[in-house]
Amino acid sequence: MNGRSIVSLVLLGGIFVMEGFDIAAMALAVPRLEGALGLDPAGFGWVFTALLIGLGAGGALIAPLGDRFGRRTLIVLGCLVTGLSTLGTASATSITGFLVWRLLTGLALGACLPNVSALSAELAPPRLRATIMAVVSAGIPIGLALAGLLAPEIVDLLGWEGLFLVPGAFAIILAIALWPILHPGIPGFGDTEGTEEKAAKEPLPQLALFKSPWVFPFAVFAALLAFNACNLYLLNSWLPTVLPGAGMTLDAAARVTGVANLAGLGIGIAASLLLDRWHKRLTLVLLFGSMAASFAAIWLTAPDQTRWTLLLMVGVGGANAGGMVLPGLAAYLFPARMLSSAVGVGVLVARLGAFAGPPLGGWMLATSVAPKDFLGVAAIPALACVAIALLVPAALKRREVVEAQADRPVG
User: Fold this and answer.
1) How far apart are alpha carbons 171 and 64 in whole angstroms?
2) What is the C-alpha to C-alpha distance for residues 45 and 95, in angstroms, rounded to an integer?
3) What pTM did the predictor assign?
4) Could you say which architecture CATH assigns to the domain 3-178+203-407?
């Protein structure tokens, strides 16, 4: 990799830091809005879901255009609109206002993030593709952790609005910095010549994912994304609100959330190295199995801040690590010319699972479910991921067969 590629990867990682902070911002703001604006925390379930709807729609309908026209335009415009809509969120005064701004934020992020993941894969050496993608997407747990750790100081300085002003301004700065650095061309790493011609002949490249031989690998990939996203958004939407019910203060709950998310950084990088250099199926079984065990342990024990923090580092950190690792798996399942489409449409399908997370959490909160039972529910999606991970070798085999047929001499 040359210097420009390294700078590009650092800035792309910054987008994920911004995303992580932005995701956490709403969750951290909700318990503070009851006093500031008189808004009931239980009513924010659909506000969290609006972000997911936007992410899914933007990922499926807009992000695949990066496979045809190049990544830079989608990344920079998506980053810019994300910044503006996040700044707009700070002006909301009603649940409807928050919902509209979060929907717009999700659309912009959905258009941007799959192209960030795909471009990271294109810039990475083939033998370290999953690892580089994970290091770049490590910005998500970093952003989540920074939001949790810095929230008390930001709120003291700028009020709850500061939780949106900070990531919004950062996104706009990133958009300005990325435009001259990123290469504007059409993707094509590792493909044979004619990538641009292929793109021109495929006005809707995402449709290929629902045809043989790619439908099975895509089903496995999307199902893993969906169940992990359910946990990711259930936990990151409601953890700062649930933990005070276990005896923690608001500031302590924010910091525990930050520490748990930061643990995902180390778990994600370690799992990605294993994905590149070890058994992909066993790596995923170990990751999601550990998550399930940690949530089961919380369910079986009485609240204790130290013990629960350690267990949440494995469980919540593992959910964030899954978000880092799974895009790297896509680089092994699909060729480069399909990567933005696979990640983008995968994000849409994943939102079907993620949609369940915030409303489920809101329902449990409204019905006064105990914190340990709330967190114990997260073991179920983690166990589903363990079962799906067992199908990964068969999914990888499909690409091997396609490439073997393409290399076979004609006649």
Assistant:
1) 21
2) 10
3) 0.69
4) Up-down Bundle (1.20)
